[in-house]
Structure formats: C-alpha cells, structure tokens
Amino acid sequence: MSARRLPPLTALRAFEAAARHLSFKHAANELSLTPTAISHQVRQLEDHLGVRLFARGARRVDLTPAGQELSTALRNSFDAMARAVEAVRPGTKRRALVLSTTMAFASRWLLQRLPRFAQAHPDIALHLHTSDEPVDLQSGAAQLAIRYGPPGYPGLNCVPLLASRFAPVCAPVLGVRDRDDLHRVPLIGFDWFRRDANTPDWPLWFERTGLAPLPRQLRFSDEVHAIQAALAGQGVALVNLALVAEELRLGMLCQPFGPVLAGHGFHIAWAQARDDDPGVAAVRAWLLEEAHEASAAAVD
C-alpha cells in the first residue's frame, strides 16, 4: 500500500478548528495557539493544496467552496478518530452517540450550540455525522438524525424540531429595499437535494408574487454557500430564515420584503427500538429546548 500523501496534521487541525468556528481567534483559543499561528498554518495548508480555503474579510472569514468540502471531510474524520480513541481508553465512562444531520443544518445551526450540550451532559460524547444522504438509523450507524422534509419515516419515530420559512435576504450594503431592486442585483440560488411542487425556490417565489421571473445569476451546490455569498454582498439569496437568524439579528443580513414561503420542517428521527435509551432521550430533549429558545428569540 502506498503512503498517504497528506499535509501536516497540525495544519489540518488548525484549519478544521478555524472552519468550525469561522474565526482564527476562537480556533487559537481551542488549540492553545495564537491567532497568528493559526493564520500561518492555514496559509501553509492553502499553499500546499494550491487552493484558497477561506475568503478573508475585514472582520470575519468565510469558507470557500473548497474549504467547505474539506471542512466537512475533516470534521467527520476527526470525530471518528475521537470515537476510536475513547473506545479504547481504559476506564472511559462517557457514552458515545452519533447525531446525523444535513451539512447546512450542522454548520448554520447546530455546531455553535454543541458546547452547551457538552456542558450539560459531560457523560455523553456527542459526535456529528453530516451528509445530505439519509443515514440508516436501524443499523446503528447513528442513533439520531435531524432531517429536513415531511414527517413520517418507516420504522422510525420522529418529532418536529424547527419550522422552515424561506425569504429573500441580502447584505444591507446592497441597499435593496423593494422588489424592483431585484433587477439590479444578482439572484443567488442553490441546488436542492430533493424537490417537489412546493419546493421554496426562486421560481415558486416569483410565481407567488405574480412577477415575471428573473434568471438566477449565482448558483451554488448547497444552501451554505448561498448564505455565505449573501453575507459577502454578492446578491439576494432565498434561504431558510432559521439558518440565518443570528445574522438577521446582528444586522449582517436583512430581509427587505416578502413573500415568505413555507418549507418542510426539520425533524428529529430515531429508531423505535431506542425509545427507552436514556442517552437518546437526553439528546432529543436538549435539541427541543434549543429549538424552543431559538424560535422564541426569532419572535422577539
């Protein structure tokens, strides 16, 4: 077997932490380094790969499409290594559980809340599995999943977690105030993993407004990239408001007009055989509490 051609592990760790936090400062705190050291290691990794992983702004960094792809793979790999290490560590009492969810929900809603779970449940090591393909919960590959779509999964129990509402959002710097402004700014769209007649995308939005449809000038493979493009001031994106609630609250994005389209909700799903599993129940209760607080904050 040929040797693996990998960049330095220190650079990969620095990038994964910076990508997870979208902050060199927070990554530095996690790894007990300086922000300058994190920046140097990320730049070293970019030079090694020959591709930019971050779009660097004055006050924040955002992942490029290549960075998003590498971040997801590294996070899953490091989580798998952590589970393996915990499994062989003598005297380990922490219960390891795997929560599967979509890449957009993980990066835009769940990741920033995980430290609160770790603090509230130090006896449970909660690991994320991110994929837009549904995981087989019956096989034990994951114990719970958060999925976007209509309720009802054969052989599984599920409860509603978050409602979905889609509306146009953009950076305030664009000065978009009414629908006429859509003629002078790009429309940002993304590819849906699954579609139906009520998929809340730009064609449906124009149909509901009665306006003549305009072409999407920027198109991305997933919603995360569409949101990042909107934050960067590249146009108006039609996205799930639950995934940009913090940016709307901070004024980094604005919702200039409607209509707002209803989408399918997010649901927690688990195998019926795990109904009495206390660890699964703890994760489920925590998720519902976080969702309740997020919904209350959005109303305020």
UniProtKB/TrEMBL annotation:
Q: Which UniProt keywords apply?
A: DNA-binding, Transcription, Transcription regulation
- List where this protein forms a coiled coil: none
Ranges where the HTH lysR-type domain occurs: 7-64
What PANTHER family does the annotation carry? GLYCINE CLEAVAGE SYSTEM TRANSCRIPTIONAL ACTIVATOR, HTH-TYPE TRANSCRIPTIONAL REGULATOR
Provide an example Pfam family for this protein: HTH_1
Report the protein name in the record.
LysR substrate-binding domain-containing protein
Kindly give the CDD domains that the UniProt entry links to this protein.
Answer: PBP2_GcdR_TrpI_HvrB_AmpR_like
The cross-references to InterPro entries, in alphabetical order and at most eight, read: LysR-type_TF_proteobact-type, LysR_HTH_N, LysR_subst-bd, WH-like_DNA-bd_sf, WH_DNA-bd_sf
Q: Lineage of this protein's species?
A: Bacteria, Pseudomonadati, Pseudomonadota, Gammaproteobacteria, Lysobacterales
Family the UniProt entry places it in: Belongs to the LysR transcriptional regulatory family.
